Amino acid sequence: MGGERPGGGRRPRMFDGSELRLVLLRLIADEPRHGYDLIRAIEALTGGAYAPSPGVIYPTITLLDEMGFIEEQQSQGAKKRFAATDTGLAHLAEHAEQVEALIARLSALGEHRERVDSAPIRRAMGNLRVALGERFGSGDVSQDMLHQVAAMIDELAQKVERLK
């Protein structure tokens, strides 16, 4: 299922509906955009840690349009591009503190991801997963070999824990 995690349950939402409306309105006020642009802008703010789905973005754009906060602009191609209206800008001004806090939350998520980005670790773990799958996939493995490999993995885990 789409929103479910391996441990069960759903991934917590990044925003409630009103928060997402404010973030999208702010991004549209900064620069006229279409839905895909908004997804990419949020993904960029979070350093790739979060990208809202089109199923969340497009209904929110429709709602912002119906509320009179944004309006469609002339654009080339099939994508609808939206700009903030005066009403939308006034709404942003009324909620400026909350908007800044939401943008800060997105930026902090991106900064956190930068600090903990472990691409080399993920690559190495993937290599280990492949090696284990190839070695033990045949089912022709002794209990002694299983214990040896488990001991190697445990030893490495202890060394990682002790790193300073």
Protein model, in words:
This protein has 164 residues and is mainly α. 65% of the residues lie in helices and 5% in strands. A two-stranded antiparallel sheet has the order 1-2. Strand 1 and strand 2 (81-84) form a beta hairpin. Helix 1 crosses helix 3 (54-66), helix 1 crosses helix 5 and helix 2 (35-45) crosses helix 3. The chain starts with 16 loop residues before the first helix and ends with a helix. The model is unreliable at 1-11 (pLDDT under 50).
User: Percentage of helical residues?
Assistant: 55-70%
Tell me the series of helices and strands, N- to C-terminal.
HHHEEHHHH
**Based on the structure, what is the oligomeric state of the protein chains?**
single chain
The main sheet orders its strands as: 1-2
Mind describing the biggest β-sheet?
2 strands, antiparallel
Distance between the termini: 40 Å
Number of strands: 2
Mean pLDDT equals 83
What form results from the Cα inertia axes?
Answer: elongated
Q: Briefly, what is this?
A:
With 164 residues, the protein is mainly alpha-helical.
Any descriptors?
single chain; 164 residues; mainly alpha; two-stranded antiparallel sheet; 7 helices; elongated
